[in-house]
Amino acid sequence: MQKKILREITPLTPSDCFTVFAREKNEFDFPVHYHEEFELNFIKNGKGVKRIIGDHVDEIGDYELVLIGPNLQHAWFTHKCRNRDITEVTIQFHKDLFDEKFLRRNQLSHIRTMLENSFRGILFSYETASLLASRLLRLSKKDGFESVVELMSILHELSISRHTRILSNSTFNNMANFSYNSRRIERVMEYLNENFNNPISLTEVAKLTNMADSAFSRFFKTRTGMTFIDSLTEIRLGHASRMLIDTTQSVAEIAYECGFNNISNFNRIFKKKKGCTPKEFKKTYLAEDRIFF
After folding, report:
1. How far apart are CA 63 and CA 25, in angstroms?
2. Ranges of each domain in the chain
3. Distance between CA atoms of 234 and 228, rounded to whole angstroms?
């Protein structure tokens, strides 16, 4: 039987802008899940807790602040955490809280970029989390218009914060159509996502943009922040991670279907990028998610 990840129906009502929960706890046991709303999650005293965001798995520190976009699978589990005085604040807000036309205004550019990146999950720095901790904790005590203004202010602070980290692979959350503000780059990314399972050369892709190999390499790196090879590898790993979770195929079958023609090379690259082997990733993800049928 095909396993299904839990789709959570959050308590956020259509009549409210957002909802916030502040609570003390001693463990994490809610299964891997996803929902339609954005979620900002803050954790204090959770060192050793395991974080799962998309195809990203890691242990958290004493302070944790993550923004998760709609329909991105996520969960936290007690794992190695021994603290019994954990504080968690969860804020969920509608994906249409900010109208698309509103977000296109110049003053909202940082928030717009942050929300776009949140579809892969954003981890904020320890400094940012500790700086905003008291405001996040007090938000549940505010109400009415004042609470909305405070949430928008917090989101603004996050959008201009430094040392953020994007957690999940773009391919894992089906972001093949993510905008790069370049038709040529978007054409290339579309081609890579459609042909990742086949051998793809730099020259082959450069022809799509009518550019020489060297010029295309520089252009691609400038626009995406990644080399062509690294981007292709990320796309292949994203599809592989998705298949490890969603199918019963063997690691070798998945490797070859995702364009890796050498199983040893696939295992090496996967471990380098994700900190664990494909088998360990599959075991960790499926062991922790307490999947519903």
Report:
1. 15
2. 6-166, 183-288
3. 10
With CA atoms as reference, report the closest residue to 37 among 7, 67, 64, 71: 71
What are the φ and ψ backbone dihedral angles of 96, each rounded to 5 degrees? -105, 20
Tell how far CA 264 is from the center of its chain.
Answer: 27
Question: For the whole model, what pTM was predicted?
Answer: 0.81
Q: What tokens were used for 192?
A: 């890579």
Which sign does the torsion angle of CA 122, 132, 159, 111 carry?
positive
The CATH code of domain 183-288 reads: 1.10.10.60
- Per-residue pLDDT tens over the stretch 47-102: 999 999 999 989 999 999 999 999 999 999 999 999 999 999 999 999 999 988 99
- Inter-residue contact 32 to 290 (CB < 8 Å): yes
* CATH class entry, domain 6-166: mainly beta
Measured CA to CA, the distance from residue 141 to residue 56 in angstroms comes to: 33
